[in-house]
Inverse folding.
C-alpha cells in the first residue's frame, strides 16, 4: 500500500509504502516447504528433512529473497497504479515506525521526463546528395582488376616502380640504437599502395635488384608505435626481389570471374553501378539521418534521468572492455577507465532515445510490417539467394528487431525532413565514400 509519493527534484521521487508481515511470512513458509521436498542434507533422505532444520539452514536467505521480491512487486504495482514511468531501478530501504504487523519501506527513484518537441518547421537540415558517375564505375573496375592482379619477375636491371611487388630487408636505428619492429628480412609490399610510410616508399622506388639505400625516416606524431612516434630513425633498405604487376583485361572473362550473371563488359559495369548506387544510398541515408536527428534533438526540451545515463555509461564501458579484449589487451576487464569518459556520449544517446520515442509516439511512426519486409527484400537483393536471406532475418526475433529499429529511424528521418527547412547540398562521390 502506498502511503505517499513526494517530489525530491525535477525527476527524482520518494515513495513510502507498507507491506503486511503476513504476506512475507506466508510466502517464506511456502518457499521453505517447496525447498524441503528437494533439499539434500547429511543424515536425511531427500524430501525427509524436518521443516525446522530447513528453516534454520535456509530461512534467512529465503526471507531475504521474499522481501526483495515482494517489496519490488509492491513498488512496481504502486508505480503503475500511480501512472509513474520509472526510469532505472529504485533504491528501496526499510524504515522505522511501521505499525504492528506491517513493514515500512522508502523507495527513491527517477521517472522519465515529459519531452517537449518544438516547431519542426523552423528546424534547419542540410541534406546531401550525390550521383554515381561513369568515372566512379571505372575506378571500381580498376580496383577489382588490382585485386586480381598477377606478378612476374622483372629483369635484373629493372628498377622498382609503383605497382611492383618488392621483397626487401630493412633495419632502422634511432640515435644508433635498434628498436622493436625496426628490422625485418624478406618483407613484401606493393610499392605505391601506401602500405609503408612515404619516406620508405620514396627510398625503395628506383632501386634495382641487390641495391641498397640509407635514408632518414620521421615517424608521424600519431604513429601507432608510441615508443617511436615523432622520432627520426636512420633506415637501410636492400631490395631482394622485384615483380611486375599484370592486371587482367576488362573482358568477358573478368566479368565471369566476378560471378556476373550477364558475363559481358556491359553487364559488369551495370552490376558495379547497381552496387555502387546501393552503397551510395545507404551512406547518404546514414549521413542525412545524423543531420536530421541532430536538428530534432536541438528542438527538444527535457531533463535527463540520471539512472538512464548511468545505465548507458555502463553499457559503453562494457563495450569498450570487450573491444580491448578483442584486440588482445591483457586483463582488459581490469584496465582503469574513468566512468565520466563516457558521460557525454551516454547523455547524448539517452536524450536522443527519449526524443525519438516521443516523436514516434506522437506521430505513429512505428515500423510497419510491410516496411520491414520491403527493407529486408532490399537487403537481400544484393545476395545470390535473396529468399534464403529473407528467411534468415524472419527466423530470428532479434535480427528482425534490428531491422525494425532501422525502419523506425528511417520513418523519423522522413517525417522530420517533411517538416523542416531542408537545404540540399551536392557532394562528390569521392567525398561521400571517403567518410567512415
Amino acid at each position: 500500500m502506498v502511503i505517499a509519493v513526494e517530489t525530491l527534484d525535477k525527476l527524482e521521487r520518494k515513495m513510502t509504502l507498507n507491506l503486511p508481515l503476513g504476506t512475507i511470512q506466508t510466502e517464506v513458509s511456502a518457499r521453505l516447504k517447496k525447498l524441503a521436498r528437494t533439499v539434500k542434507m547429511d543424515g536425511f533422505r531427500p524430501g525427509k528433512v524436518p521443516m525446522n532444520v530447513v528453516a534454520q539452514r535456509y530461512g534467512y536467505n529465503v526471507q531475504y529473497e521474499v522481501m526483495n521480491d515482494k517489496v519490488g512487486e509492491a513498488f512496481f504495482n504502486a508505480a503503475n497504479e500511480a501512472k509513474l514511468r520509472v526510469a532505472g531501478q529504485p533504491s528501496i530501504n526499510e524504515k522505522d515506525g511501521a505499525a504492528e504487523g506491517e513493514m515500512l519501506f522508502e523507495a527513491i527513484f527517477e521517472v522519465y521526463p515529459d519531452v517537449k518537441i518544438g516547431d519542426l518547421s523552423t528546424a534547419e537540415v542540410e541534406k546531401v546528395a550525390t550521383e554515381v558517375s561513369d568515372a566512379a564505375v571505372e575506378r571500381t573496375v580498376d580496383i577489382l582488376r588490382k585485386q586480381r592482379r598477377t606478378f612476374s619477375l622483372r629483369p635484373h636491371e629493372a628498377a622498382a616502380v609503383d605497382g611492383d611487388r618488392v621483397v626487401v630487408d630493412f633495419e632502422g636505428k634511432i640515435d644508433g640504437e635498434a628498436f622493436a619492429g625496426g628490422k625485418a628480412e624478406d618483407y613484401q609490399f606493393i610499392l605505391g599502395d601506401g602500405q609503408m610510410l612515404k619516406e620508405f616508399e620514396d627510398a625503395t622506388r628506383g632501386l634495382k635488384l641487390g641495391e641498397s639505400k640509407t635514408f632518414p625516416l620521421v615517424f608521424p606524431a600519431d604513429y601507432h608505435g608510441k615508443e617511436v612516434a615523432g622520432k627520426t630513425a636512420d633506415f637501410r633498405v636492400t631490395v631482394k626481389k622485384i615483380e611486375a604487376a599484370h592486371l587482367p583485361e576488362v573482358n568477358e572473362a573478368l566479368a565471369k570471374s566476378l560471378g556476373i550473371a550477364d558475363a559481358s563488359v556491359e553487364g559488369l559495369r551495370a552490376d558495379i553501378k547497381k552496387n555502387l548506387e546501393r552503397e551510395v544510398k545507404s551512406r547518404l541515408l546514414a549521413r542525412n539521418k545524423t543531420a536530421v536527428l541532430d536538428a530534432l534533438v536541438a528542438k527538444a526540451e527535457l531533463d535527463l534521468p540520471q539512472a538512464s545515463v548511468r545505465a548507458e555509461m555502463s553499457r559503453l564501458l562494457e563495450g569498450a572492455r570487450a573491444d580491448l579484449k578483442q584486440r588482445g589487451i591483457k586483463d582488459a576487464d581490469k584496465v582503469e577507465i574513468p566512468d565520466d569518459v563516457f558521460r557525454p556520449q551516454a547523455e547524448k544517446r539517452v536524450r536522443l532515445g527519449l526524443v525519438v520515442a516521443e516523436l514516434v509516439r506522437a506521430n505513429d511512426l512505428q515500423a510497419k510490417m510491410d516496411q520491414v519486409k520491403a527493407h529486408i527484400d532490399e537487403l537481400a537483393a544484393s545476395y545470390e539467394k535473396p529468399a534464403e536471406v529473407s528467411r534468415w532475418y524472419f527466423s530470428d526475433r532479434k535480427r528482425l528487431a534490428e531491422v525494425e529499429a532501422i525502419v523506425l529511424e528511417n520513418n523519423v528521418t522522413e517525417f522530420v525532413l517533411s517538416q523542416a527547412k531542408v537545404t540540399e547540398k551536392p557532394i562528390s562521390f569521392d567525398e561521400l565514400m571517403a567518410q567512415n
